[in-house]
Design brief:
The complex is a heterodimer of chains A (260) and B (307).
Chain A: H1 3-19, H2 21-47, H3 52-82, H4 86-91, H5 96-126, H6 136-162, H7 169-172, H8 177-180, H9 192-199, H10 202-216, H11 221-252, H12 254-257
Chain B: E1 3-14, E2 17-28, E3 32-36, H1 43-50, E4 58-63, E5 66-68, H2 72-76, E6 79-83, H3 94-104, H4 110-120, H5 136-148, E7 154-158, H6 166-183, E8 186-190, H7 194-200, E9 203-208, E10 211-216, H8 218-225, E11 228-234, H9 239-247, E12 251-256, E13 259-264, H10 269-278, E14 283-289, H11 293-301
Parallel strand pairs in B: 3-8, 3-9, 6-7, 7-8
Antiparallel strand pairs in B: 1-2, 1-4, 4-5, 9-10, 11-13, 11-14, 12-13
Helix pairs in contact in B: 8-11
The chains are: A mainly alpha (260), B alpha/beta (307).
């Protein structure tokens, strides 16, 4: 991994970001609208004397780490494919690993921007501060980001393998995580038959612990530890799948055909 | 001549289909080699394997005596690629796009290098323009600037002048010629423009159904296609012209009044002209159409090429 080339990938992402209104919309507009809607929901809950609105808002704010983190990897690659410049990058000494790690870092920065903006909005509209989570916010952030990277490389593998006809997976598939990953409600409300799927995802443990902290002021370290271990498993699995797929699509010619 | 690129027994199968079938060739320092062939002949797959975008089924690729892609970083920092089909990030300015590649190639004094190349290509004013605002000709020149950024020892060029108007295409070819002479860079060049290939290439390889079916200098290849076409305009009757050509067993036809088209070897042209003089045929106009790479291309595609 060449750190100079990593910096160049980040510079590339910044140049692209600075010229692309659509990317600003993904990072600022969409999270802003969502937090506005969820703040109104939280206010309506609060009016009925129900404090669960806070949990929903917190879920929404931290959901941005998964959504923007994953999206940055997959759509970061797709922007190059759409411009027909993807293969040109790898004709230079840049490696695919450096490109992906660069997208992970840029995804982290973009998701932090989205979360900070959402948090400020939540404070201004609802007087709710994520700082009430204290240092635990960093632990939740780390676990959710690693999960988003795992999802990103897995979904990118699918796009490499099946081509541009499945490109919409890069912004659609991650939303499957939202209902199953217990982002806004406890796992117990899910049908029993799919709860095991929820418990196989690190995000579930993060959101369950977060809700526990907000509601009872207690932190379930065991759940966070399981979430951390699952993160490592998901990330390792995602990386292995990606490496196998990348080798396979270079053999089949599908990688060279990505740009049409 | 030191081999910059050496390809041995390179093969690519997609299932049962052999896109590239056991090809071997080398490119020496400062040499421009044309890689030609009909659509589907295997040119693009060959180039993709030479750039590690497609993994070969069998065979070896060596650049500068080092195995590829094992020594990927060393090799890719010393070669480059230009194609009308591979673009740059359209949401960035030309200067930013080239700056990114200069960074990836670790070019020293990147701004100075970029400005030098843009000036050489007569597109200095485009440095702050977004890539997607450029015309096809401007894009091609920016891509060429990228291809020369790292002072490569070898450039793979896949139809760099495709879809350009003749004026811009000529400028592009002039630029390639100029820089190639100055820097002694080796080039592997594919194009469907045969005149361009004849003008640029020291040697040409023809691919057909994944195999190299002909390899020679452009002149050597055209000589193998066979006859030239001599078109003469003459004064007087057609009869003595016809009598003489039939006596000499020369293939001919009369495309219009007072004109004869003769198919013959280039070396026999003086003999035929003297013969007409002897037979008192007054020639008023002589036109010789020599076979060119286009004829070689057509004869290979048509399966009539003499190997």
């Amino acid at each position: 991994m060449n750190t100079n080339r990593l910096k160049i990938v980040l510079l590339h992402t910044w140049y692209h970001f600075s010229h692309s209104v659509e990317t600003w919309a993904d990072v600022f507009w969409q999270p802003a609208i969502q937090i506005w809607v969820y703040t109104l929901i939280a206010l309506s809950f609060a009016a009925a004397g129900d404090a669960r609105g806070t949990n929903i808002m917190m879920g929404m704010i931290f959901w941005n780490f998964i959504w923007v983190g994953e999206y940055a990897i997959t759509v970061g690659a797709l922007w190059e494919v759409w411009a027909r410049s993807f293969s040109s990058l790898f004709i230079s000494p840049l490696t695919m690993e450096e490109f992906i790690v660069g997208q992970m870092i840029s995804g982290t920065i973009k998701s932090l921007l989205a979360v900070v903006m959402s948090s400020v909005m939540a404070y201004l509209l609802y007087h709710f501060s994520v700082l009430t989570l204290g240092w635990m916010a960093l632990v939740y952030t780390a676990e959710l980001l690693v999960f988003s990277w795992a999802l990103g490389v897995m979904i990118l593998s699918l796009i490499f393998r099946f081509g541009m006809q499945v490109q919409s997976l890069s912004w659609a598939l991650v939303f499957l995580i939202q209902p199953i990953g217990a982002v806004f409600y406890p796992v117990s409300v899910l049908p029993k038959s799919i709860q095991w799927i929820s418990y196989s995802m690190p995000a579930t443990y993060v959101f369950e612990t977060m809700r526990g902290q907000l509601t009872h002021g207690t932190i379930d370290w065991r759940a966070l530890a399981i979430g951390g271990i699952l993160d490592l498993v998901w990330f390792a699995l995602g990386w292995i799948i990606f490496q196998i797929t990348y080798k396979s699509v270079k053999r089949s010619g599908a990688f060279a055909r990505l740009e049409g | 001549m030191n081999a910059i690129l050496e390809v041995k027994d390179l093969t690519k199968h997609f299932g049962e289909f052999a896109a590239v079938d056991h090809i071997s060739f080398s490119i020496g320092e400062g040499e421009i080699v044309g890689l030609l062939g009909p659509n589907g002949a295997g040119k693009t797959t060959t180039i993709q394997m030479l750039l590690d975008l497609v993994t070969p089924t069998t065979g070896t690729i060596m650049y500068f005596g080092k195995p590829f892609p094992k020594e990927r970083e060393y090799i890719l920092s010393r070669i480059n690629f230009a194609s009308a089909y591979a673009q740059m990030q359209s949401r960035m300015t030309v200067g930013q796009d080239l700056g990114i590649y200069a960074g990836l190639y670790e070019v020293k004094n990147p701004r100075q290098k970029i400005r030098e190349l843009l000036k050489l290509l007569e597109i200095e004013e485009l440095e702050n323009e977004l890539f997607w605002h450029l015309s096809a000709g401007q894009k091609t020149r920016v891509i060429l600037a990228k291809a020369f950024l790292n002072d490569p020892r070898l450039i793979l060029m896949d139809e760099p002048t495709a879809s350009l108007d003749p004026d811009i295409a000529n400028k592009v070819v002039e630029f390639i010629e100029g820089l190639q002479k100055k820097e002694r860079v080796s080039i592997l060049y594919t194009s469907h423009n045969m005149a361009e290939v004849e003008r640029l290439c020291d040697r040409v390889m023809f691919l057909d159904h994944g195999k190299i079916v002909a390899e020679d200098t452009p002149l050597g290849l055209t000589k193998r296609v066979g006859n030239s076409r001599l078109i003469l305009t003459f004064d007087g009757d057609q009869a003595p012209v016809e009598r003489y050509l039939e006596k000499e067993h020369v293939t001919h036809s009369f495309p219009r009044a007072h004109a004869v088209a003769i198919s013959l070897l280039e070396a026999d042209i003086p003999k035929v002209l003297f013969g007409f003089a002897k037979h008192k045929v007054w020639i008023t106009e002589i036109d010789v159409e020599k076979p060119d790479l286009e004829d070689v291309f057509l004869s290979i595609a048509g399966g009539t090429y003499e190997h």
